[in-house]
Amino acid sequence: MGFRGYARQVRDPARPHRRRVRALRQCVGLYRPIGFHGTLSFLRSRCGPLETDEAALLRAIAVLEESRDLWLADLRAYAGERAGAKRRGRRSPASPAPGASAHWYGLRQEAAPHGVLFWHRRLWQRRRRRPTFIAAPAEAVNVLRACAEAVLSTGGHLPPDLRGSLAASIVLLRADPEERGRADFGAGELLALAREIEAASSP
After folding, report:
1. How many Å apart are CA 35 and CA 33, to the nearest integer?
2. Which of 22-31, 107-116, 131-140 has the lowest mean pLDDT?
3. Claim: this prediction has a pTM higher than 0.85
């Protein structure tokens, strides 16, 4: 079943509440702009105790659908731009596809701290279990960790020196792994964390 089918189940008052909550989790599994747990965390924060409150559950599916609709519109616009560029002979995309730079459409800055917390926990929990999991440059990893902790502890404030270091780290993480002569496991997740830090700390 697709996202819309599960969304209908969320709204179906004839279904037991726990099954409607399960349907919402299925929706989040299909569209999770800031990770599964980060997305659920933001929905609870914005909409209320969706596991026990029907009104909160209905608000949550509406908020999730609104973000997804904006994302799909962005994908359609990008596809149109790419088709036009190909007709003009430009094969390499001028910008990354929206699906490759996911964030919470419509409420990006408000949702970003939940994304920062999710990615921060996920990456460093994995690193404790598998010290070799993150093979990205150590300086970039350390900067991202410091930035995440600053954003989480101050409610979104990032000092100017860390902001500059964050920008440099993003450039480093986007570099060709072969140029660095190392595997690049974890770089995609580190970039996801970096994007959420940028959004959470936007002026």
Report:
1. 6
2. 131-140
3. no
